[in-house]
Amino acid sequence: RILNNSFQLSSLPLQILFYVNGIYSIFYFLATLAMIVYKSQVFSYPDDFLVPDLAVLFLMAILEVPRLYLGCKGNLMEEEVPLGLSLGFTVGSVVLCVYLLAWQTYILWADVVLNAVLLCAYGLESGLKVTAIAAFVS
Amino acid sequence: VARLCVCDLLVAQCDANCCCDPDCSPEEFSLFTTCSVPVVVGDSHLCRQKAAVYSLDVEANPPERIFQLVDQVNPSIFCIHATNYKQALYLNSPEMPTAENFDRLLSEFGGAAFSAEPEGWSVDTEAPDPPDANETHSYQYGAPVQTEDAFLRLPSPVVSSWCSDANPAGFLVNQATKCIRSVSVEKCDSIQGLSMLFYINSSILAVNVTVQSIVVQSLDGMRTLLEGDDVLRLPLALDELCLNIVLGVSYHITYTDTGAITEAAAAFVLGTITKEALSVQQSFQISFTQANTKPVPLSGNPGYVVGLPVRAGFRPQGYPFLVEFLTNKHSQLSILQSTASQDCLAAQGARAPVLFGYNMISGCKLRITAGMKCQPLAQTLLDVLKGQSFPEYVASFGNSQAQDVLDWVPITHLHISEQRFSNPLQSLCQIPVALGIEVKWTKYGSLVNPQARIVNVTATLSTSTLKQLPPGREKIIPVTSSVVFTDISSPAEPGYKAWPTINIKLPFDFFYPFV
What we know:
The complex is a heterodimer of chains A (138) and B (515). Chain A contains four helices and three strands; from the N terminus they run ββαααβα. With 138 residues, chain A is mainly alpha-helical. Chain A has a two-stranded antiparallel sheet with strand order 1-2. In chain A, a hairpin with a 2-residue loop joins strand 1 and strand 2 (6-7). In chain A, helix 1 (12-42) runs antiparallel to helix 2 (47-77), helix 1 (12-42) runs antiparallel to helix 4 (109-137) and helix 3 (80-103) packs antiparallel against helix 4 (109-137). Chain A starts with a strand and ends with a helix. The mean pLDDT of chain A is 90. The longest helix of chain B is centred in the C-terminal third of the chain and has 13 residues, at 374-386. In chain B, the strands form five sheets. In chain B, strands 7, 8, 9, 10, 11, 12 and 13 form a seven-stranded mixed sheet that branches. Chain B has a seven-stranded mixed sheet with strand order 14-18-19-21-20-22-17, covered by helices on one side. In chain B, strands 1-2-3 form a three-stranded antiparallel sheet. Helices cover 6% and strands 33% of the residues of chain B. Chain B starts with 25 loop residues before the first helix and ends in a 28-residue tail after the last strand. Chain B folds into three domains: 2-73, no CATH class; 143-290, no CATH class; 308-487, no CATH class. Chain B is mostly beta strands. At the A-B interface, helix 1, strand 3 and helix 4 of A face strand 4 of B.
């Protein structure tokens, strides 16, 4: 494909995925926060268990921002370094997501659904990023 | 969940209509009408769980119980899929103490008292952390007086007569205790409770305990006050004696009206013990005085306490208006105390104090002989009945201060004379034969904690004429004095709070454009 007299190496599916992921992350963060509040009211949720769960959720939210930004930048500018960094962040986010999926204090069915979707998105993103990096490097 | 049965209450017996009871046989199941517990499940929030369903098949003959283990599914999206918190769904049974974890459990849950928050005896969460000279700590009645590390100790006998050093002194609780401490001459300087240092070592937060006076008691019991000696005297073992052991401590604590302690002084009685002595009796006392007031023994706070003396006083002479009352030991309200000899004229002025609430009657017998002059006799009898200084005012509350003139009730005097009007021209002199003091008191204050308040005191003097006797004859007349306390309290009235009012005020510039 030739666009503006140069080959386009940026990956369009990856860009779409970043966009969708951004919106879904906001929804995911708000929904999980609301569910933690619901759990703390309905079930017995002592502070020792509430604090780690909330910390993981906020850490994930904080990590999302540089992850998506670096990913977008790297993909659009066709540079592999920011994309590699974004991949690193993704690995961290995957770990946190797995925590929220399996090691949370109370795992509701809605939690399982949300986290599974997010994991799928991360997996797909990672695959596309690797492909894009390979395309950029070569 | 198949083993759980809520209706199984009787052990080894079949409960009626309890389908899950394992003690029931099929014959007993056939007698049931319904199942009181149809389903046994765990937490209903779980997404998937096993449920034990019990039902009675009434179609069959005889009816039999059907038990099924089914999977119950919670369709809600917010059902608990899994949990990592064990106590969430199951009852957490407490740890059984074993030899290994006993120390840990004791340090975590042990305490001097059974309370929800374990607190150690010497740890006080309310005391300020290292005593701050500017901080005042205000006490309530009965609260233990705190020192730097623990509480002010007032050793007292707890279970037996032996001294226990862990007894704290309560604020405003005047106490006097006596207890026995075991001693030995060889170890007399190592036993803590025998040395002065033990009692003045701990400072009550910012206030140091000063030594007020030291009285030395010799072996034969004679006590001498040491002059100007504030030196700490520690037990000293000398040959077969041990000197300077503490036989008595008397604490005097001064407090302000906000409940903070400003001064603390201790007066000691030191003694000597011999080699044969195995135990020594110690006496301890603590008294509280409010700062800037003269220590007057209160008869109640504020209402009179039954059994405490009625406080009385005089108005000082020469003052145009009431300033302060004079109260001292001699101006107490007292009545004649009956003596063994019952002779009025030989009574040496023994008086008994009038105690609040105690009706008393006392008297003596007057022997009248011929030739007794009436006037001196009347005066003597008046002295016998009323005492040397009969007060003029009585305190209406147990803690009335001398400066509060409105708190004092004047004593009204009545005179009843038994005068025979047979011969009005002959005004014979009268001798007092009876003095009756009637104290009217009322209950004052709230219904749940009424305080006794003296409202009126009337002293009624009854006199009768002295008939001259023919010579050689003598007559015996009884002379009585009595005190009666009458309760004139009116029935309690309920007091209600004022109706709430709606307070609406428009702002100043409400009608701005028009006004």
